[in-house]
Amino acid sequence: MSDGWKPGETLFSIEEACEKGTIIMCLLSDAAVIEVWPTIKKHLTAGKALYFSHGFAITWNDRTGVVPPKDIDVIMVAPKGSGTSLRTMFLQGRGLNSSYAIYQDASGKAFDRTLAVGIGIGSGYLFETTFQREATSDLTGERGSLMGAIQGLLSAQYEVLRENGHTPSEAFNETVEELTQSLMPLFAEKGMDWMYANCSTTAQRGALDWKGPFHDAIKPVVQRLYESVKCGNEAQISMDSNNQPGYREKLNAELKELHDSEMWRTGEVVRKLRPENN
Description:
alpha/beta; 5 strands
């Protein structure tokens, strides 16, 4: 994406990348963007484009300080998944779906540049959004159904089963393994109704009867979460946390606690017993 760049070439510094690039791709973490923004900004000369894969820095620029010059394009293509998944699916010839947005179109070519990036990273398909909508939906999703809520739900069910005499293997299989290995592929393929239709009548009845109580219990939590994201509180927490001395060590300790929990230690054993691993 830069003049004179060749595949396999290493760009040794942010300074060099920004100086060479006509489209400067800002793929750093949110915390890192804030730290290096002064270096990036001085190379944003008229006619260049600044690309983001996430709307965080721009949406909350009153907190991040990331305010681009008016004479450049500011664009976004946000893959709906992790960088690891993006790369894996690209190599498989599949691609992740991505949202796209244009924050500034100084050149008149921002849309073309955005589509080029979206196609270049192998997006499955592209759908339009804004920087603000992408950032708020993304932070809500990762704290909610994609990561935070799913871990909370899984651990709650696992704990109840264990407290009532079920073995670690049974609790994990009924809570996690069946979900990820059997049911998720079904509703990923054709939807939740199709997955229901391919389960036992007992499972169907139970799911239909209990989805309402779960919805009613969880929706107020999601609403509080969304308001916390929308007002910038979650962004501020993220920035404050990353700026704390020793935060990386604290984070690693929190992740280790999760890794060492009985449920996920059981998961390690269960995954080894899958047929494809034997």
